[in-house]
């Protein structure tokens, strides 16, 4: 595998990918290791996870540099991710024992009924590159807490970070035969589908997720999918501060170069404030520092994947052909590296790909709406169902709109946000199942119901 730096296109390192044989050996080891790992108490497993968290924080500068080098994420955003992801560990330490302990439901006369939560066994975590700490922790740490052993396959664009997870988990006391990282591209991913895992946990695109779910369906084991989105934001005519609304919306659209599953992907603006909002939005986007991701002031670095440059150019051309106006950006940067200028398209509508197809990059389409009803019908016009946001000074108005959304998450006056306290789940083409919260803790265990009767 050639690991490249997206800021330059240069090869950082060449690594030997796993093969069918090494994968099999690792799988067999995980099968064995899971037995003693699951025999530990939840508290003992959490001790290792807590230690892992402390080691990561201790080495966060070095780890952030690795993440930036292989994904192009601006260094400050790499640090933010590593620091922020620690809230999953805090959440587990606070709640895992509560949600994984036995529950006695009936204890009367000579009858007891209780539920015990048992691990699934050996699970596989096929992961994405855009927020490897956040989306990785959501799966592998929660799975380990539940007593499973884990095979972790990082994306081919976040391999070095995946290897660091392995190194620090082992250092923190998670045995080698309880967590294993396998590296390779989609072909290795395909081999994983042939192995007899007790659960498949995937983060990535709808196309790959659907393929995985279809391929492993016959095994009748849990399959969980965290997929893409086309997340809408509606800015109503009663926002108290149009400039601030524009700044927040732009951050939701362009943070991490728009390469976030819950990035704002399309914006609807009430016609009364439309012009003022666009001016403020464009001013904000033009002020973003585009450049070398190792510079602490950079907000927009290179895209992680070179092929996304052509994809975004096609979306922009399609929108312009159908009547959109370009207010900022619009093309890649004529230099080394995979840079695409932050792009704002206005006068958009749903004939354009930019309003219907996940961009996953620094391109946003904005459309004017005449009423709340029109906004709702456009927001719902998507096969995805990850998040939806409304900016308004009227909470009741916002809640009435958000209730109509068929999405796993809704936001009032915020966006592009994940918290371990509440479930993270996509509906429709955005996924299946939940991570985080009590749902995410329970996702990696199976109930055993005990009916107990004294003679
Ligand atoms: P992807 O191309 O679908 O890849 C995801 C993972 O699947 C990678 O590890 C990939 O390996 C692997 N893979 C590829 N082909 C496979 C196959 N045939 N069988 C098994 N595994 C296979 O997605 P991505 O580009 O990494 O991530 C971007 C997408 O993820 C976006 O749509 C984004 O919205 C979504 N996402 C969703 C969430 C969420 O929480 N809902 C979070 C983050 C990202 P290689 O990379 O080595 O090819």
TrEMBL record:
Domain Aldehyde dehydrogenase per the UniProt entry, residue ranges: 2-449
Q: List the GO molecular function terms.
A: oxidoreductase activity, acting on the aldehyde or oxo group of donors, NAD or NADP as acceptor
Which keywords does this chain's UniProt record carry?
Answer: Oxidoreductase
Q: Name one Pfam family in it.
A: Aldedh
Q: Which residues form the active site?
A: 226
PANTHER family in the cross-refs: ALDEHYDE DEHYDROGENASE-RELATED
Which family, according to UniProt? Belongs to the aldehyde dehydrogenase family.
Q: What is this protein called?
A: Aldehyde dehydrogenase family protein
């Amino acid at each position: 595998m050639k690991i490249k730096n997206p800021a330059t296109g240069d090869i950082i390192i060449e690594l030997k990918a796993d093969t069918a044989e090494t994968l099999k050996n690792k799988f067999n080891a995980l099968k064995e290791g899971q037995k003693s790992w699951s025999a530990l108490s939840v508290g003992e497993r959490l001790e290792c996870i807590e230690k892992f968290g402390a080691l990561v924080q201790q080495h966060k500068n070095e780890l952030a540099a690795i993440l930036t080098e292989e994904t192009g994420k601006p260094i400050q955003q790499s640090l933010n991710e590593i620091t922020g992801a620690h809230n999953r560990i805090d959440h587990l330490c606070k709640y895992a024992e509560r949600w994984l302990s036995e529950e006695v439901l009936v204890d009367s006369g000579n009858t007891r009924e209780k539920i015990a939560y048992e691990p699934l066994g050996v699970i596989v975590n096929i992961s994405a590159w855009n927020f490897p700490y956040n989306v990785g922790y959501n799966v592998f740490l929660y799975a380990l807490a539940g007593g499973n052993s884990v095979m972790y396959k990082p994306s081919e664009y976040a391999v070095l970070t995946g290897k660091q997870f392995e190194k620090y988990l082992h250092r923190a006391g998670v045995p080698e035969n309880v967590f294993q990282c396998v590296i390779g591209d989609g072909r290795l991913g395909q081999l994983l589908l042939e192995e007899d895992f007790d659960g498949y946990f995937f983060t990535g695109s709808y196309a790959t997720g659907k393929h995985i779910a279809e391929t492993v369906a016959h095994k009748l084991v849990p399959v969980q999918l965290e997929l893409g989105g086309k997340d809408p934001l509606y800015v109503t005519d009663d926002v108290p501060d149009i400039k601030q609304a524009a700044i927040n919306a732009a951050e939701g659209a362009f943070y991490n170069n728009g390469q976030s599953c819950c990035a704002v992907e399309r914006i609807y603006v009430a016609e009364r404030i439309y012009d003022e909002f666009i001016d403020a939005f464009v001013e904000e986007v033009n002020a973003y520092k585009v450049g070398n991701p190792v510079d602490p002031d950079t907000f927009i670095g290179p895209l992680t994947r070179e092929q996304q440059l052509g994809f975004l150019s096609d979306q922009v051309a399609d929108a312009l052909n159908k009547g959109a106006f370009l207010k900022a950006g619009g093309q890649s940067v004529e230099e080394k590296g995979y840079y695409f200028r932050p792009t704002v398209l206005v006068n958009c509508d749903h004939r354009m790909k930019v309003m219907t197809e996940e961009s996953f990059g620094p391109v946003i389409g904005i459309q004017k709406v005449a009423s709340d009803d029109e906004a709702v019908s456009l927001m719902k016009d998507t096969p995805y169902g990850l998040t939806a946001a409304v900016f308004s000074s009227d909470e009741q108005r916002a809640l009435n709109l958000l209730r109509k959304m068929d999405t796993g998450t809704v936001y009032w006056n915020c966006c592009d946000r994940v918290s371990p306290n509440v479930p993270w789940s996509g509906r429709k083409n955005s996924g299946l199942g939940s991570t985080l919260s009590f749902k995410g803790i329970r996702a990696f265990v199976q109930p055993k119901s005990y009916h107990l009767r004294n003679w």
